[in-house]
Write a structure and sequence with these properties.
The protein is of the alpha+beta class and about 130 residues long. It is about 30% helix and about 40% strand.
Length: about 130
């Protein structure tokens, strides 16, 4: 299948012949294989795993996934290649999430996403 990971600034990843992608869906982890049924879903913060000869891992703060006609589009506001993810970037994301949690105007959705982001970043740092 064709897989594209896109942010507002750039195309971070674009390759064909990918056998499987695991995404952090809002309902839980989801594996997408060739010829999967069409799906549109939201992403929560977590790791996107692209399975090929050498797996690629990306960390997203959330986004939207659209799969149809053997083409997977992953649209993210922010996404980082895990191998290049610095402690500074991780700490900045945690700080931003903590500020959202402290803000009395944060919505339930903001709180859910901020907590999920902190949890996933903590897991990432322990691996």
């Amino acid at each position: 299948m064709q897989v594209d990971i896109v942010t507002p600034e750039k195309v971070l990843f674009s390759e064909k012949d990918i056998s499987m992608v695991t995404i952090p869906g809002i309902e839980g982890q989801m594996g997408i294989l060739d010829n999967h049924l069409p799906v549109v879903t939201f992403l929560k913060p977590g790791v996107i795993n692209i399975e090929k000869s050498e797996n690629k891992y990306f960390f997203t703060t959330g986004g939207v996934v659209d799969f149809k006609n053997n083409s997977l589009s992953i649209l993210c506001q922010e996404v980082f290649d895990v191998k290049d993810f610095s402690d500074k970037q991780i700490n900045n994301l945690k700080e931003r999430a903590n500020k959202k949690l402290e803000d009395t105007n944060s919505t339930d959705h903001d709180i859910f996403i901020s907590n999920a982001l902190i949890d996933e970043l903590n897991l990432l740092k322990t691996k």
